[in-house]
Structures are given as structure tokens and as C-alpha cells.
């Protein structure tokens, strides 16, 4: 394991060259230390799956931490014999997009803060803890055999099973166990019996994601002469790094200039 400076890494994320030899992974680890750390790839993981922005379980001292792959190289400052292997690849696709990763690397360099802590702070708590980026939930579905079942006959033999099967038939996208628990009586016994008979089955599915819509655009208030002057001066600096100090008393409209 070896630290590797984060400076200039933002420019290298997009440059993901094909490696001719064994690769070294440059990983951002959430510790208060500067730079990236070198690891060997996890055993059994192909090079193509190791993409920037993916998370890895890595050994760090006596701990096991969640790091983010930033780049890769063919050489390390340490001999390969002294490098530890990452333990596991946690993602099939990057959890941080290339542009976001570049921004975080720039911020770590500009503010002189440990890059691993900057990138770690950008991840939601569950991702920092190593949980799956795309959680799945189990839903219970009726099988083809269950759809062909004689419901009235089942009603005479096992009314509780028939009631549950009827409820499942009415749910085209299946039901969770929580929904089944609202059935009266011993729903677990009925569910187990239906499963044993091959009339229903559990499947892991992705949870539905609510699609947020951007708010409708509306024209802002008319700017004052002083606000227009400030906006013009700031706009003239777009495209290059500039710093501005917007001075004004409370209620003078500084926020509107910022917006």
C-alpha cells in the first residue's frame, strides 16, 4: 500500500489507457492522510470491470474500509510484493460519474484536504458503509402453475391459501411480505404452503424510483441598476477563474444577483 498524490488526477480520470501489464489500482481511502493508495486488483475480477468511480473493499491497517477507485497504473513506488490486494469490487457500474469525480479531486487539491475524505463525504451513508448502490427487494409473484390453479377447489380445501393466492393474482407486480402480512390468520403458513406447491415464488426486483421533475422556469424580478451592474461585471469573468466580493446591506438584493 502506498500513497499517491491526488494533484493532476482530475485530468487523468478521462485518460483510462489500456494496460499492457499487471495493473496497480489508485484508490481514495477515507482516512485523514494525503494522496491515493496503491492496491493490487481483487482476485478473480477482470480489468474491464475496474472502472473509475467504483467502490472497493480494501484492507487498511487492521481495518477493512470502503475506497473509491480513481485511476490505475502499471507501476508503483512500492514493489508488488509489498502491495496488498483489494478484497472485493462492490459495484458493477461507477457510483460517481467522471465529471463528479474530477470535481472532487479538484476540490481536494484546491482546499488541501485528504482526497479520500473528500470523496467519502460525497457518498451517501449507506454507500460509505459498503451497501449496494442498487438495492433490491423481494416480491412474491404467482407462478404459471398458480395461475392455472382451480381457485374454487383450493377454496374448499384451504381457504386461507386461496385468499392469499387470489390477492397475489390481483397484483400484477407482485406483493412484498409486508403486504402479505396484512392477510388475516396464519399468512406465513399459507405463504409457505403455496411456495411448496409451486403456486408462488419470491423474486428480487429493483425498487421503483420516483422521477423528480424540475420546477417550471419563470422570469425573475426586474433587476435594479446596481444589480445589473454587478451581474454584468461577474458575467464578464465567465470562462476563467475569478473571485468577486458582493457587498451590500441586508435587503439590497445580493441573493438575486447570485441566482
**Element order: H for helix, E for strand:** EHEEEEEHHHEHHHHHEHH
Q: Please list the strands of the largest sheet in the order they lie side by side.
A: 1-3-2-5-4-6
Mean pLDDT: 85
Shape: flat
Total helices: the number is 11
Largest sheet: 6 strands, antiparallel
Number of E-type strands: 8
Specify the oligomeric state.
single chain
Structural class: alpha+beta
Low-confidence runs: none
- Fraction of residues in β-strands: 15-25%
Mind telling me the C-alpha Rg? 28 Å
- The level of helicity is 25-40%
N-C termini distance: 45 Å
Outline the structure in words:
The structure is a single chain. The chain has 259 residues and is an alpha+beta fold. It contains eleven helices and eight strands. The model has no long low-confidence stretch (mean pLDDT 85).
Summarize this entry quickly:
The protein is α+β, with helices and mostly antiparallel strands and 259 residues long. The protein is 31% helix and 16% strand. It is flat and about 80 Å long.
